[in-house]
Specification:
- By secondary structure, the protein is of the alpha+beta class.
- The chain is about 35% helix and about 15% strand.
- It has 4 helices and 5 strands.
- Strands 2-1-3 form a 3-stranded antiparallel β-sheet. A two-stranded parallel sheet has the order 4-5.
- The two termini are about 40 Å apart.
Length: about 140
């Protein structure tokens, strides 16, 4: 596997993994590589820093237990933030926009939106933020 820093036509830089340099070229030529932020398919390699091994006196990588503990802390914080928030499912973009323009009273909501819907909300100045961890719809929670 090989990792490349890539840049879309709008200047977004992101990282992607490929089986080889040839796989990168084949996928790019076929239009299969797109920007995760704007879905632009005009993709080029970005300037990358060389991979340099870390010094031996550096802290060790996080252990699986530490990663699990950090994820649990994020989940607990997110649950606290969502306390009192109403799940609106796939109607999130429609409801958030209606509140923003005054067609619906303001409320704290959370739900699902496509990348394009989320981008349109942000572009229109609707105050939204992504959740750090996925939230299961209430009907799918044990």
């Amino acid at each position: 596997m090989i990792v490349f820093d890539l840049r879309c036509g709008h200047g977004h830089v992101f990282e992607a993994w490929f089986a080889s340099s040839a796989a990168w070229e084949d996928q790019r030529a076929a239009g299969q590589v797109s920007c995760p932020l704007c879905e632009d398919r005009t993709i080029e390699k970005a300037v990358m820093a060389p991979a340099v091994a870390a010094k031996g006196n550096r802290a060790a990588a996080a252990t699986p237990a530490a990663i699990k503990q950090a994820a649990a802390m994020i989940a607990a914080h997110q649950a606290k933030l969502l306390d009192g928030s109403q799940w609106v499912g796939g109607d999130f973009a429609k409801r958030a926009r209606a509140m923003h323009v005054g067609d619906e009273p303001h409320a704290t909501i959370h739900g699902q939106a496509s990348r394009a819907e989320a981008r349109a909300l942000v572009d229109d100045g609707v105050p939204v933020a992504p959740l750090l961890l996925p939230v299961a719809p209430p009907d799918q929670v044990n």
